[in-house]
Design brief:
Layout lengths: L13 H16 L3 H8 L11 H11 L5 H21 L6 E5 L5 H7 L4 E4 L14 H15 L4 H14 L8 E7 L2 H17 L4 E7 L16 H7 L4 E2 L2 H15 L4 H9 L5 H11 L11 H13 L2 E2 H12 L7 H13 L5 E5 L9 E4 L1 H7 L5 H4 L3 E4 L2 E4 L4 E4 L6 E4 L2
Parallel strand pairs: 1-2, 1-3, 3-4
Antiparallel strand pairs: 4-5, 6-8, 7-8, 9-10, 11-12
Length: 419
């Protein structure tokens, strides 16, 4: 690991960190400027010669820990969790692990867990999310996903039906464990699942592992990036899903599916104390409403700004910039991002254009900002007046040239916009 490289999988090797501390001390004694800069970021200048304990402290702080003993204690905890997951994991009860993707399925097995796995990954963060019963919701979502991701309706419906119908068989289990992180993709799905559990009241014991940060991981995106050892470490931190959490799920789902933002704003204002990350994710979801000044949602705004500042740029690099540097709460997958770009590219007066078509794969195609895109970003033109598409923020439909809910950038208060 280089001096400024962060650990993304959350797993640390103690011997490797000791070696880094020794190498840093050697570099300091050789008066290497880069080593001196590293030390000065974490320790004040001093007349005395540095010791190994000093460079160990620097290494610990580079890894995100306040001290070397705290880094070592964390590594010891990870080692203990890894050794004991196979003996003290989910074997004491017939368990179903529920996750909004398949990203941890193999890692759970590697970590020693033996329960069944359910992927429920309907991306409620995009497309219509109406306040319908479960069957009508299923069909609405299947129709949207088929159109958005170039699938047949039959295939889309079959894929969704598999996960939706699995929720009708939860009484087969003694324990349900929900694995979710802090972004709006995860939290909107979690809201639906908690709402379903609130309605169904399965006999199983329900538990939640909700993660928004990991020690030593500078840019935590999701549980799927973590090493199997970290899943074993998270296991003892799960919390019981109590009545307050179930009620929050139903409240959040009602707010998400409403055709106006009042309930969403009110719920965000509470801070959702039963699960604070829910309020933050709902607030990010609300920011997909068009800005009153431009007609752009936050994802669209950030994307256009990246292309303005760095373009022309391959689509994949635009997405990388968005996830790594601009997005306050990353939640879009790459295919969802490409779907989001289509109206901006295909409008009669587009905001973005492809300037290098030779690449067969879309991530390599170069994006540039059009004059219209520049004008919309500057607030000189309004996207809702020139777009001819519709989009949804939960239950709220946004259609060009029609009244729509929007956010004032100066106050973040939803108001009704009339083109």
């Amino acid at each position: 690991m280089s001096a400024h490289q962060s650990i993304n999988h959350g797993r640390f090797n103690l011997e490797q960190q000791r070696k880094r501390a020794k190498e840093l001390l050697k570099a300091i004694r050789n008066h290497e400027p880069s080593a001196i800069d590293r030390v000065l970021q974490h320790l004040p200048p001093r007349p005395q010669a540095l010791k190994l304990s000093d460079t160990q402290l620097v290494v610990a702080r580079e890894c995100g820990f306040a001290s070397w003993p705290k880094l070592k204690a964390h590594i010891d905890t990870l080692d203990f969790a890894s050794r004991h997951a196979g003996l003290h994991g989910d074997q004491d009860a017939h368990t179903l692990h529920i996750r909004c993707g398949s990203d941890i399925r193999h890692s759970l097995t590697v970590a020693g867990f033996q329960g069944d796995f359910l992927e429920f990954s309907d991306p409620f963060c995009i497309g219509p999310v109406p306040a319908d019963d479960n069957q009508r919701l299923l069909h609405t979502r299947a129709e949207f996903l088929a159109g958005a991701f170039d699938m047949s309706l039959a295939d889309s419906l079959a894929r969704l039906s598999q996960s939706y119908s699995a929720l009708d068989r939860l009484d087969d289990y003694e324990r349900l464990v929900l694995w979710f992180e802090h972004d709006s993709y995860d939290q909107l799905i979690l809201a639906y699942l908690l709402h379903r559990l609130h309605q169904q009241r399965p006999k199983a014991h329900i538990e939640l592992i909700a993660v928004e940060s990991i020690p030593g991981v500078e840019r935590f995106i999701g549980i799927g990036q973590l090493a199997p050892d970290l899943l074993a470490w998270l296991w003892p931190q799960r919390q019981r899903v109590n009545e307050q959490l179930l009620q929050l799920g139903s409240q959040a789902w009602a707010a998400i599916t409403a055709d106006r933002p009042d309930a969403l704003v009110a719920l965000i204002g509470t801070g959702t104390p039963a699960l604070p990350m829910m309020a933050r994710a709902l607030d990010r979801h609300l920011r997909e409403l068009p800005a009153c000044e431009t007609g752009l949602g936050l994802s669209e705004t950030l994307t256009l700004e990246i292309v303005r500042d760095h373009g022309p740029l391959p689509v994949g690099k635009v997405f990388s910039h968005l996830m790594r540097t601009r997005e306050p709460l990353p939640y879009l997958g790459d295919l969802m991002f490409w779907w989001m770009l289509q109206p901006l590219l295909t409008a009669a007066d587009p905001l973005l254009e492809i300037v290098a078509e030779q690449a067969a794969q879309w991530p390599q195609r170069e994006l540039a900002l059009t004059r219209t895109g520049q004008a919309v970003l500057a607030g000189d033109r309004h996207w809702l007046r020139i777009s001819h598409t519709q989009r949804w923020v939960g239950g709220m439909r946004i259609v060009a040239d029609q009244p729509a809910w929007c956010l004032k950038q100066t106050s973040d208060i939803p108001v009704r916009f009339v083109p």
